[in-house]
């Protein structure tokens, strides 16, 4: 697929993201996505076979950090960028995919999520280990620290749809992770 | 309502808990609860006006700690009991109410959950402050610590329906909370 095709796929994912955040997974149809993107049915199906494929690709888009570690950027700088992205997500209630994720997960996609979860955990563990090696991070248990970072975030993300968080809640998260890895 | 009435209400909540954990909130009917409890329709409605009332009462049942603080029990002992209860819950995948909670929350019960969340937070803050006062706990920011405890747990609980956690994941949670409040 050429560059134009890639751009169209990206546009589809971006528009579909908004729909999934609004309605959850099951209520969104390919017709909704046609309407939102302005693509014809035939046009949309040239790129994606169904909402499952679009949704699983959205979830698989990752914040890539392995390149930054290879380039030997400072672990603290990578951490701060990731925390900044997370802070923005926590505060962006409207764009939470957690309802959609939850519905999708409960449709029996256990393996997909186990895999996704493992990847996210490995990504964090690799950053934490890298930071410990360079002496920037404290000598924490990388797996234990990665789980805190992931599940604390998931809990916040889940509840941010329901409860209005103020900036302080996001700030507490960021501070907790920083204190665990860097400060004190 | 007399003691027998209270016992019946408790039985209803207990059986309904199992149904909500299995099916979520919306799929459970009063008829299901009649079948599970063996009560007649008239019998059930004498105690509860609908599934909403039963579910919100289940969620409002709390692990009471104010009595233990008043009796001046050791903060560390109260903490350990709470962590033990949480550990058991994390591992008890079948009894997770998180799908039901999520459905119920997304039906527009924001105020109810904001209130529930505030209460849980206050409970933890009171224990943490008490532990700091008695010199048993480290001088953490009580609100920040309470949020970690709550949302990290919620994230785990949400995912425990989807991903099979091993005992280590629960152990990491317990260890993180202990390290934050007591050790080191």
Lay out the secondary structure.
Two copies of one chain form a homodimer.
Chain A: H1 3-23, H2 30-37, H3 41-47, H4 51-60, H5 66-70, H6 75-91, H7 98-105, H8 110-133, H9 142-160, H10 167-181
Description:
2 copies of one chain form a homodimer. Chain A folds into 2 domains: 3-57, Homeodomain-like (Arc Repressor Mutant, subunit A, Orthogonal Bundle), CATH 1.10.10; 62-181, Tetracycline Repressor, domain 2. In chain A, helix 6 packs across helix 8. The termini of chain A are far apart. The longest helix of chain A is centred in the middle third of the chain and has 24 residues, at 110-133. Chain A has 10 helices and no strands. With 184 residues, the first copy, chain A, is mainly α. Chain A binds chain B through residues 99, 102, 105-106, 109-110, 113-114, 117, 141, 143-144, 147-148, 150-159, 161-164, 169, 172-173, 175-176, and chain B through 99, 102, 105-106, 109-110, 113-114, 117, 141, 143-144, 147-148, 150-159, 161-164, 169, 172-173, 175-176.
